[in-house]
Amino acid sequence: MSTEKIHSIKVPTQYKRVAAVLKTALESKKSLKTLMYNEKHARLRGMQAVLTKYFDNKGAIDEAIEKSQILQDNPRLCPILCKVLVTELILGLKKLNGESKPVQTVRAYKDRLAEALGVDKIKNNSEDKKDKKPRYVRINRNLLSVDEAHEFLASEEWRKKEYTPFENYDDFLKAVQELQEDEYMVDMHVDDLLIFHPKNKHYWANHNYTREKYFMLQDKGTCLVAELLSPPAGSTVLDMCAAPGMKTIHVSNVMNNQGTIYSVEQNPERYNTLCNMTKSAGCKIVQPINADALTITAEQCPGVEYILVDPSCSGSGMQNRMSMHSEEKNPERLRKLAGLQIKMLSHAMSAFPDVKRIAYSTCSLYEEENEQVVQRCLEMNSSFKLLSCKKSLRNKWRNVGNQDYKKIGKNCLYTRPSSDLADGIFIAIFESIKIIDDE
Ligand SMILES: C[S@@+](CC[C@H](N)C(=O)[O-])C[C@H]1O[C@@H](n2cnc3c(N)ncnc32)[C@H](O)[C@@H]1O
Fold first, then answer.
1. Assembly ipTM
2. Annotated binding residue at 265?
3. Which helix (DSSP H) or strand (DSSP E) does residue 432 occupy?
4. Which of 18, 33, 69, 196 could be bridged to 135 by S-S, CB 3.0 to 4.6 A?
5. Residue 154: which H helix or E strand, with range?
6. Catalytic position from the list 223, 241, 283, 363
7. Can you tell me whether residue 308 is helix, strand or coil?
8. Which residue has the least CA distance to atom 18 on ligand 1?
9. Is 310 assigned a ligand-binding role in the annotation?
10. Is the CB–ligand 1 distance for residue 83 below 6 Å?
11. What is the pTM of this model?
12. 296-323 residue pLDDT tens
């Protein structure tokens, strides 16, 4: 093949797209997870592993590139594309597709890069941490019944592990940890949540049923929010911070797609994602609203009985946050976030006269965003009381809130990465005293 011909060979689209996402992540400080939500390119989702591996080993990879002199020797090689190709070649699939010039160049430096990287410098954080966490797959009952889901899995030769109801939570966790790679089981708290061995993480991320939204890849803790809010079919719900729409979709499942869900999102881009997600997930009862939830009135959303408040938070509980900018605890940022969280929850408690129940959730493990927000809002709104999340789960639960917050801690719920095989989530459920008294 002539050199000219080799030079005209294009870099595979998937590498170019991944490099574009990486560039945005490095420049914008947005987490990769956020950027991936907006990325429709199917093959890119398969490259998620490369991006995670890069961020887990950023220091070592950048240093190896520097030491190998690859960029100095090849000034036309794009530095970001180089990072992607090096990660894929040394830490990812260990091979590169095609014969484009950048691919050939990186291949030619393989030994030098591998030596500079050194096995001892390679972290496999994502696998170390996440491999213990199973793959959670929730059935989107708007599009697929539970029976159909099990039939489909049988047709793919998955083995369903059957259990008599678990006596306690520890037995359940043990069973999850003992799952084989070709097995799955049903969660003990959420009936439409299926649990697979961690090795199937990428399989389900790339599966057609996930793309078609028959299956939602939703971690255990976030599934508990809709379950605990538990709006009956036909009720009226307000989701105050709705995008990308995972909990709205789950709530629509809980309501058997009957009733009304007002789903509010302030950010225009995320609002579009919300509209697309809920539509493709078969939600017939969602009325999306692009607005600041703090301005939403009972006239705009009449008859609201159930409210979900899932505001922006530090995200400190997320195991799979793929941001290289995963911050240390930042008191000033937490103070600002807590201020907005309190405003949001207070608005839910005061602006909707028919409200019966409110779920407040964060993916944070910090008390400032959790117990303290709950405490402040209860002080300001005496017409609500907390329900015990643990009791709602028939006491088959372990992690509650900090009991130093009297009458608060024990009623709130945490899923903790260290002991629940799930991301860190906080949930508090409030019930209107007025409505309870009226009944
Ligand atoms: C944690 S995310 C919600 C995730 C969502 N509940 C789900 O399960 O898919 C918080 C969302 O609230 C939105 N948000 C923040 N402040 C808001 C406000 N004042 N009004 C409406 N939406 C807001 C953010 O843009 C973000 O999309």
1. 0.99
2. yes
3. strand 425-432
4. 196
5. helix 146-155
6. 363
7. strand
8. 292
9. yes
10. no
11. 0.73
12. 999 999 999 999 999 999 999 985 444 4
